Predict the structure.
Amino acid sequence: MSFVVARDIFQSYGSRPILERVNVEVAEGEFVSIVGASGCGKSTFLRLLLAQERPTRGEIRVAGAEPATEPGLDRGVVFQKYSVFPHMTCRENIVAGESFRTGFGRFGGVKRRAALERADATLARIGLDHVADQYPATLSGGMQQRLAIGQALAAKPRILLLDEPFGALDPGTRLSMHDFLTELRAETAMTVFMVTHDLEEGFKLGDRVLVFDKPRWDPTDPNAYGATITYDFDARDGGIPYQRLTENAHGLRPA
Amino acid sequence: MRLINREPGAALKAALVALPFVLVFIAYAIGSEIRLAENPQDRLLPAPSTIAATAERLFTEPDRRSDRILLWHDTAASLFRLGLGVAISAALATILGLLIGLLPHVRASLASFVAVVSMIPPLAVLPILFIVFGLGETSKVVLIVVGILPFLVRDLSARVMEIPREMIVKAETLGASSLVIALRVVLPQLLPRLIQAVRLSLGPAWLFLIAAEAIASEQGLGYRIFLVRRFLAMDVILVYVLWITLLAFLMDLALRRLSRRLFPWTETGL
């Protein structure tokens, strides 16, 4: 059974349709890249997955559960900006990933010490142990995004949503962030949705690339119709499809 | 080189800082000199030396009748009222600002109300305060609260809403409740802005304090100024005005230092 199911999603702001008839099913552990032109509802779809907004029609279910009404622990998110808390040091930011769910958002005593140790391990893993006591504003853009990803993962979400996470980074940093994300995924095997402007990035990282576009276009009123998923590419094996079907193609698969 | 790109050196900068102060002092000294030359009994512009002598007397010599140094007592009374008024306003404004900024239901009910209330001229309701709270300390403190609370509430609730939505959503995905978001995400980022807002409202707070003291009081800096006005004691008034200015300046400086000390993350940008 599919892990994330979006069925017949429509979303409009006022009278302006953004998304129409979006249907998609995603298996657990898949990395889904979402690409498309500006204003084609990519980020809107991500907000719907996050349950920050609710669709005008249709529903999104995760693992068969009732559609969520607000963002929660099962969905982690990293935005392009503002994804870490500026008033906490890096270590505190990571601890927040675990402690925010408690009554007052803090750990005390033994729990706190254990959480700090885990945070240090996480910081070492994401290569930020040398700046553990610094505030995020002193870090470079790439380091801040690594911290944001580390913080999101500390909460152990079932789905990770990335909204143009590397959009503001320079090309070199971007490449090292790709390696970083690929490694993390190999370790956690989490379901990931990533919105990106960069097609190459989408195909490089994703198992699947969803393209959002407007299937109908009214030249006198460009906002008359919403966007939907127009292409659904298999991006595994370097984007060359049918690579894995060869052995099965001639009836060689054991019955 | 363009004028906008020219920076004064350290020595010149110090001189430029001092220049307006020196100019005002010289202008006053000349004016005072001219008037005193015409009429040695003139009281309007006492000589700087007279003011200095008066200041020394006011700061050190006890009053003959009450045997207390009045200036220090006035200062203590005024600072107590000011501090209490500002502290109450700051505490209430923080709570209301958080509620209005974070909770749509509270915002719907209170935001316009606060906007309307902030248009009431506080001095116009001063008589009501005197009638309701009597002529004691309460009415003066309440006037300061009435005077600066609406501004603080509007400012702080706007600051809460300025916090990027992404940050709040991020906290939600970490499982934070509304209370945790308020206490651990929004409040720490609001406090430096609270200090900023309090610094801005110190001026109005002094205005309302002196107004209330001028009308009905038995001690206080504002009371003394308006009392000696009857004797045209310009030297005393000027000493008090300079003293109030110094106090207000020191408070502002202290708050600025405090903000830098308590919230190092606000200025740690690269």
The beta strands of chain A are 4-13, 16-26, 31-36, 57-62, 75-78, 159-163, 191-195, 208-213, 228-234.
